[in-house]
Structures are given as structure tokens and as C-alpha cells.
Design a protein that fits this description.
193 residues; alpha+beta; disordered N terminus
Length: 193
């Protein structure tokens, strides 16, 4: 956190006690400018099957004293799972719309996004423990670590590690239900050995 945001951080921390809101801090992970992102690496392979290798019976989020925070973290994790589920059933429009700006945050046209999965036979995603909720200027952000294993149509396995940053608008007067839903804001996934 930079010094310019420190007074805002202190004020928001004090407001937490008053309105029962969340502690907001500044920490946004942007897309890698070199083009190494979800769209350039994970999309390289079309998806026929997907499996979520995280345990369905255990919560992906550590218990926290603030159940509202825990619920929002779980909602964000669900977005990542739903994203890969949409890809698995080849509902690329649904997957594309998971990105902020009706897909614009993916930095691809819909056609490029869809074509990115043309050679994928299957994908498995492991979702790690989400980071803390952080925010600025009326929005919340959360970092969700993932490991993605893709298998191409010719049987070649590929593994990617990194994270997605999800964003949603705070529950402020005038915000719409759509704005208060988590969307993928950016991704930074790199090919692993």
C-alpha cells in the first residue's frame, strides 16, 4: 500500500466498525503486459471436459471471523469454477461474459476467445485459497490462485499456474445487482513445467 492511500485505508478501517463493512485496502494485480495472461496461455487449447480437483466437501476458504467476507470469498471462487464449467460445455458466450465489461477485460474479441479453446480436449482446475478482500474507489478485488491442467486434442498435457483477480462494486446506493457480482478483472497465468 502506498502512502497516498494510507489515510483512506485508516478512514475505511474506522468505518468498518461503524457500518459493519469490510476492511478495504489497495492491491490490484494487473494483467502481465507481456501478454502472458489467461487469454494467451490457457485459451490456447477447445474444452470437452473439466474437473474441479478441489475438495467439494471442504470449504475453499479458511474460516474467518467475518462471515460476510467469507461468503464473498466463496462467491468469487464459485465464479472461477463456473467459468471453467461454461468452457467445459462449450458455452463460450457465458465464459466470455464472466470477464468484466462483457468480456472486454479478456483483451480479446469473442471470436479470438472462442478460437483459443479450439484444440483443448479437457481442462482441470485446482482453486487455491483466495486472498483477502481488498478494495478502492467503491470496488472490491480478490486474488484467486489457480492451477490449470489442460490436455490438447492430441493428448499433450499442459499446466498453467497463476491467479485471477476478480472485481465487484461495493453495496453502494445506486449500484445494480450486475455490478455487485464478481467478474474476472485480470489474469496472470504462466505455463509451468
Amino acid at each position: 500500500m502506498t502512502n497516498i492511500y494510507f489515510p483512506l485505508f485508516i478512514w475505511l478501517k474506522q468505518q468498518r466498525r461503524v457500518v459493519g463493512g469490510m476492511l478495504l485496502a489497495i492491491a490490484i494485480t494487473g494483467c502481465n503486459n507481456s501478454g502472458t495472461s489467461q487469454v494467451s496461455s490457457v485459451n490456447s487449447p477447445s474444452v470437452a471436459n473439466i474437473s474441479d480437483t478441489s475438495s467439494p466437501t471442504s470449504s475453499p476458504v479458511s474460516p474467518t471471523p467475518n462471515t460476510a467476507d467469507s461468503q464473498m470469498e466463496q462467491e468469487a471462487v464459485k465464479v472461477i469454477r463456473d467459468y471453467y464449467s461454461a468452457i467445459a460445455i462449450r458455452d463460450y458466450k457465458q465464459a466470455y461474459s464472466t470477464w468484466s465489461g462483457d468480456g472486454a477485460a479478456s483483451q480479446q474479441s469473442f471470436e479470438q476467445f472462442q478460437q483459443g479453446f479450439a484444440n483443448t480436449a479437457s481442462v482441470a482446475v485446482e482453486v487455491g485459497e483466495p486472498g483477502k478482500l481488498e478494495g478502492a474507489a467503491g470496488s472490491l478485488y480478490i486474488n484467486i490462485p489457480v492451477t490449470v491442467t489442460a490436455v490438447t486434442a492430441d493428448g499433450t498435457p499442459q499446466r498453467f499456474r497463476g491467479s485471477y483477480v476478480l472485481r465487484r462494486v461495493n453495496n453502494v446506493p445506486g449500484s445494480t445487482p450486475e455490478q455487485r457480482q464478481w467478474h474476472i478483472y485480470s489474469a496472470k497465468l504462466t505455463k509451468a513445467n
